[in-house]
Design goal:
Strand content: 15-25%
Bound molecules: 2-acetamido-2-deoxy-beta-D-glucopyranose
Protein name: Coiled-coil domain-containing 3b
Order of helices and strands: HHEEEEEEEHHH
Biased composition (Basic residues): 260-271
CATH architecture of the largest domain: Beta Barrel
Helix content: 40-55%
CATH topology of the largest domain: OB fold (Dihydrolipoamide Acetyltransferase, E2P)
Region (Disordered): 226-271
Keywords: Signal
Number of strands: 7
Number of domains: 2
Largest sheet: 7 strands, antiparallel
Number of helices: 5
Signal peptide: 1-18
């Protein structure tokens, strides 16, 4: 199941121009991603709430706010040992950042239970953790239940229980865990790079707008200056044409000299 989901994801993502993944991207197994997810919970969706805006929508022209929502969930079981989220079973909180985005969709239905990979964003909102750009929400199927129950450091999760009993399988998975942590480092670097890049784009856009304003302003000033300088030059030309024999030691029309020219010309005309 894991590979087919990953394959569909790859096809979906590669078909979509807006979702360029790093060229060395490879799908990862659920087990590996589970090791990398910050928070893993099994929870029931109690209600859905519309979100008017999402910072996770990177396409500025996608204004359809019906597409974004948050889910109010009740924690049935905290899946991982030492998970960042230290709240007891039965706690309720909102998972935001759900909905239909350019490259992916995170959707859940009311009254259903799911396994969630979650993380906290910089503002302490809890959002899905799409480790390796893959799906972080798993429906409550026997298959997913088996998978999560059998993973090293994940509990055999039913509502309200948190049983951690040792099984020999877990030693094997400890190796897997170490292997995952190498990927983790690379992955976090990649995520940071993406974050840095989008930040850079924002800064550049701002600088660009600033520059455009500056150029606009300069053009305006230039036009204004041209208008102001044109008039005296024209009147000088007209005068010059009507009085061709008028002696002019300096025909330069730079601004510093204009006042003197103006002064001189009327005088000579009066004569
Ligand atoms: C979840 O968000 C909704 C809408 O913003 C709010 O009414 C509700 O109280 C929140 N629930 C919790 C448990 O914070
Ligand atoms: C969820 O369950 C509640 C209470 O049982 C019910 O009122 C509601 O209609 C259900 N929602 C959906 C979408 O089935
Ligand atoms: C965090 O909050 C700040 C200020 O409200 C906002 O500008 C920023 O976009 C938020 N970031 C996220 C990831 O929600
Ligand atoms: C999980 O619990 C079920 C039912 O209690 C049990 O049959 C199964 O063996 C348990 N699995 C593991 C890995 O402990
Ligand atoms: C991202 O930016 C931070 C601070 O600006 C910097 O310390 C870090 O090295 C950058 N990371 C990458 C992967 O470029």
């Amino acid at each position: 199941m894991g590979t087919s989901v990953a394959l569909i994801l790859v096809l979906f993502l590669s078909a979509s121009w807006a979702c360029q993944l790093p060229h060395d991207w490879r799908p990862q197994t659920e087990a590996c991603r589970a090791e990398l997810a910050e928070i893993i919970v099994f929870a029931k969706v109690l209600a859905l709430h519309k979100e008017s805006y999402s910072v996770y929508n990177f396409l500025p022209w996608q204004y359809d706010t019906d597409l974004f929502f948050s889910a109010e969930i009740e924690l049935l079981c905290d899946q991982a040992w030492g998970s960042m989220l230290e709240v007891p079973a039965g706690s309720r909180f909102n998972v935001s950042g759900l909905g239909y985005f350019p490259c992916y969709s995170y959707s859940v239905m009311e009254n259903n239970s799911y396994y969630f990979f979650l993380r906290m964003d910089e503002n302490y909102s809890i959002i899905p953790h799409g480790v390796n750009f893959q799906d972080p929400i798993f429906p409550d199927t026997p298959e997913n239940h088996r998978m999560f129950a059998s993973l090293f450091q994940f509990s055999n999760c039913t509502a309200g229980t948190q049983v951690h009993t040792y099984t020999p399988d877990w030693e094997l998975q400890e190796d897997n865990r170490l292997w995952c942590s190498n990927i983790q480092k690379a992955l976090f670097e990649e995520e940071e790079k993406v974050k840095n890049l989008s930040q850079k784009v924002k800064i550049l856009e701002k600088a660009n707008n600033h520059l455009r304003d500056k150029v606009k302003n300069m053009k305006r000033l230039l036009r204004q200056a041209k208008r102001e300088t044109k008039e005296p030059v024209q009147s000088f030309k007209q005068l010059h044409e009507t009085e061709p024999v008028l002696p002019h030691p300096q025909q330069d029309t730079t601004q510093e000299q204009k006042p003197t020219l103006r002064k001189i010309i009327p005088k000579t005309l009066k004569n």
